[in-house]
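Review form for a predicted model. The reviewer records the input and the model, then writes brief findings.
Reviewer: anonymous (R2)
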Amino acid sequence: MTTIISFVVVIGVLILIHELGHFLAARWAGVGVERFSIGFGPVLLRWRGKETEYCLSAIPMGGYVKMMGEENPIEAGPAMPWDPAKAFALKPLWVRFLIVFAGPGMNFVLAAVIFIAVLATIGRPVWPAVVGRVVEGGPAAAAGIRTDDVITAVEGRRVEYWEDVERAVSASDGRPLPLGLKRNDGPETVTVTPRVTTVRDPIFKDEKTVWEIGAGPKLVPYIGAVNPGSPAERAGLRPGDQVLAVGGRPVFTPDELMQAIQKRPGQTIDITVERGGRPVTLQATASRFKEKGPLGQETEVGRIGVSIVTGTVSYAAYSPPVAVWYGVVRTWDMTVLTTKGFWKIVTGQIPLSNLGGPVQIASETGRQAQEGTAPLAIFTAVISVNLAVLNLLPVPMLDGGHLFFFLVEAVLGRPLSVRKRELAQQVGFVLLMLIMVLALYNDLVRLDAFRFFK
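Model under review:
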């Protein structure tokens, strides 16, 4: 029930904001609006204003704003049941462009507002500048940096969080950096020389070069929840256990813990945890699971049925002016990331099996709702950006298709004929239906809904 309610609320808000953008821009431009509808299909509720009929329909997967005179009056015929001064088609090209763009534009605005609100109130996740894993043979090891060292300063500047260290290393361009350290035996200063290395983007697996010192933060992984009947429950793992090592190798972050388990499908693993102030070693046999990577490759991974959390993460809020800046930057970064993802799918760099539909969105919405208001709000902002970018694709039936027609009109000096636009709309409709069917099919495959037919 939580999943259904949160999904309807999130989708409803996104659709309302999108259509409200078209509506307000039309009203500002003096264009008459005949109907403002949230949803498609049978009308559940309707009420009529002075000029506009407002509707709430049964299928909450979209909406529309029907404006007066959307077609050119000359092509529509002599019968014009609306005031020509309020006709959409008779407005200047830039006004029509603005009205159509206002829908996805409002989704961008919504995402920015959410990011700003979260950053200004709850803040961003941060963790202390405590050293966890030190890579053997790396710059940190060569400089004498050890696990549990607290980095207090970089080049004389005070350090509060690990992100401060990462920022300084990234901006170093390889020059030696004096680090102030706090240890049990007193403060110490060491000099570390960052090295350039190649890493893979965690989402698209693209390679990029970064500066690093061969050390990571200590995030202290804990067992958050244990699934009933899981290998973890049979092994005796409990919520609140601090994980110290897997297979005799220390783990310092939730990501390291997860990867250590995933690399051992079907294997019995020694897991050392701290419980009641003393170490306890338990054995769990990881289950085998098939998992598809972002490039469509299928791999076998191990799972033991736990959620993993960290006890060292806190949140630091930005001041309102800084929150506005970073909220806008976060929206831009998400727009670039989403556009890049669509491009990789279109060009075949990412398999179509990565497309998700309403079932996947609903599932993720429910999961975020269970984690709290802030995660749900951030997820809503991400989906809002995705919706905006999707609508700006130059596909007929979408806002981007209309904007493309306007660009053609600007070049030709006249709009395309009704017949050509109708044909393009039909092609766009078929294309959108195929995409929706594919996305829904992918959702069902992820749920293993076809197992009864095997």
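Findings: The chain has three domains: 2-122+362-453, 126-217, 221-304.
Further findings: The chain has a mean pLDDT of 87.
Recommendation: see findings above.
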